[in-house]
Amino acid sequence: MKKKQSNEILITINIPQFRDDLINWFEEEQRDLPWRKNQDPYRVWVSEIMLQQTKVETVIPYFQRFISNFPTIEALASADEQEVLKSWEGLGYYSRIRNLQSAVKEVVEKYDAKIPEDPDKFGNLKGVGPYTTGAVLSIAYDMPEPAVDGNVMRVLSRILVIQEDIAKAKTRKIFEQAVRQLISHNNPSAFNQGLMELGALICTPRNPSCLLCPVQEHCIAYKKGIEKTLPVKTKKTKQKQKTYFVLVLEDNKANYLLEQRPAEGLLAQMWQFPMVETKEVSENLLIPFIKERYHTDCQTIEYLQPIKHVFSHITWELNVLKIKCDKVKALNHHQRMLSIEEIGDYPLPVSHQKVYKQILH
DNA sequence: AATCCGGGGTC
DNA sequence: GACCCAGGATT
């Protein structure tokens, strides 16, 4: 029999009082958000995936549209993959939706469309990590599981004065242990959501509103006047830059060549106007390059507005060329010749929506 | 443990 | 620009 190690943290605040203050504040002050209308585990799950690294205000319209398009777990499981991807267009981190649809299919097949209450079963689904497991199980099923995200680490680092670097992966476990000791078993949902709501509304990164804080009297960092030094977070990655030509190839019927990106990697399976890295081909060799790769002769070339697009880890410099040709043909099933109207049905990353808007005029 | 994976907002 | 955001998968 394996010995259970507890690794309990010494917590000196008044835990029952802290729970009450936090939960009472949350019940009073929580925002009226669409995914808080009920406890439907599917809706909670969808909202938690959308909210990963994404602000509430951004998510709201996407959530409404998504639930209206795919109201149930079965609807999402059986939906067309491209249509689902289109519903995520502009949200970013597109692997989230691929993983979610994959996970939802697994729930339909293995668990009879019932989202499992077992943290191990739910947590093993694609795209469901430690945070999402705790969030969905506590909010939808009232289970006392920790849901530690960036908000929770910031809030608890201040209240308990935890100085561990929250950029390090293993630090999350410290906060999970803290939550296990703090969480209300009476109302785990309001407790977890209260911590996150507090982080979003009061205990903000730069200028926390400590004077309005419902748990100010429990906050050790505030008592010591060090709340702004927390949380401790190292990090910073220098980001690379890449420069491309974007080829808007237009044939004599005003159709445009669109191609689908590979199934893996950046912007997987999204559609775009053909891109060529400038390292591959210099500007004066562009015309022969296009003839070789797309089997067409350029007639006129027009420079459109260049686009700078910043990702979290890359910056794209896009030199956009509108090139009129007599005939252009799709060469494989990852390429299509499409009218302006048809392009609107395809999932494009924001960088290429910017290109699309230029040719709309 | 470090890197990849989007996009929008703030200061 | 730097940093932040209801993170997870991959290497």
TrEMBL record:
| Statement: the UniProt record of this protein carries the keyword Glycoprotein | no
Q: How is the cofactor bound?
A: Binds 1 [4Fe-4S] cluster.
Q: What is its EC number?
A: 3.2.2.31
GO MF terms on file? Answer: purine-specific mismatch base pair DNA N-glycosylase activity
Keywords, sorted A to Z: 4Fe-4S, DNA damage, DNA repair, Glycosidase, Hydrolase, Iron, Iron-sulfur, Metal-binding
Q: What class of enzyme is it?
A: hydrolase
Q: What does the record give as the reaction this protein catalyses?
A: Hydrolyzes free adenine bases from 7,8-dihydro-8-oxoguanine:adenine mismatched double-stranded DNA, leaving an apurinic site
| Residue ranges of every copy of the HhH-GPD domain listed in the record | 50-201
Q: Which domain of life is it from?
A: Bacteria
> Needs which cofactor?
[4Fe-4S] cluster
SMART domains tied to this protein: ENDO3c, FES
Q: Which NCBIfam families match?
A: mutY (TIGR01084)
Q: Which family does it belong to?
A: Belongs to the Nth/MutY family.
Q: Which PANTHER family match?
A: ADENINE DNA GLYCOSYLASE (PTHR42944)
Could you tell me what this protein does?
Adenine glycosylase active on G-A mispairs.
Q: What protein name is recorded for this chain? A: Adenine DNA glycosylase
Q: Which organism is it from?
A: Gracilibacillus xinjiangensis
Gene name, please?
A: mutY
